[in-house]
Amino acid sequence: MTNTPSYQNPKVILATTPEEKKKCADVRVKVFVEELGYPPELESLDTMDAIATLWLATCEKVDIKNNTITTIPVGTIRMLPYDEDDTVGVLSRLAVVSETRGMRLGQKLVEAFEDGVKDAGKKAIMVQGVAEKRSFYEALGYTVEMDETYIKDGSPHYKFWKRNL
Ligand SMILES: CC(C)(COP(=O)(O)OP(=O)(O)OC[C@H]1O[C@@H](n2cnc3c(N)ncnc32)[C@H](O)[C@@H]1OP(=O)(O)O)[C@@H](O)C(=O)NCCC(=O)NCCS
């Protein structure tokens, strides 16, 4: 029998309280800064949560060794306005911690986000996504309209779109 923790009962909620929003920011620091090596300023200088709608993913962490079950934050996503067109919602800072990847939390977060975008009356979604995630976004119905990468935060990105929501 293995003693490693397992993760179950994934959930996505709208993050509305300061505590929930802080958990979203903590997940982003864990993934983007600590794991992927982006500069800490990416998060510490980010002020966009003030105007964003945020979602938080949680899981129950089941520690067989200690016989404990704890609900922990494991993922996040946010909706931002698009400066050039207020009928567009911007998908931003999608992250799932490495321990719980492959459990469809990324997909669940995008689905919750899309419901929120539609509820807000938007007609389209744009995301500036890292180039290596192209197949992830394409599988979720996003398309690259200009098949050319550009450098953002030091790595190649595409603009992905989902229109006619
Ligand atoms: C991208 C990310 C959010 C995916 O989260 P996840 O919970 O592991 O993804 P899911 O389990 O919901 O996977 C959904 C689908 O995407 C695929 N997928 C998952 N990660 C992928 C990746 N890195 N590249 C390509 N496809 C991927 C899965 O195989 C699955 O496809 P399937 O339907 O054919 O089985 C997660 O890997 C992550 O946080 N990465 C680091 C941060 C990051 O890069 N964020 C995006 C910035 S643009």
Overview of the molecule:
The protein has 165 residues and is of the alpha+beta class. It has a single domain, classed as Aminopeptidase (3-Layer(aba) Sandwich). Helices cover 26% and strands 39% of the residues. Strands 1, 2, 3, 4, 5, 6, 7 and 8 form an 8-stranded mixed sheet that branches. The site of coenzyme A (COA) has 17 residues, from strand 4, helix 3, strand 5 and helix 4. Coenzyme A binds next to strand 4, helix 3, strand 5 and helix 4.
Helix content: 25-40%
Distance between the termini: 47 Å
Major beta-sheet overview: 8 strands, mixed
Structural class: alpha+beta
Shape: globular
The CATH topology is what?
A: Aminopeptidase
Name the CATH superfamily assignment.
Gcn5-related N-acetyltransferase (GNAT)
Beta fraction: 35-45%
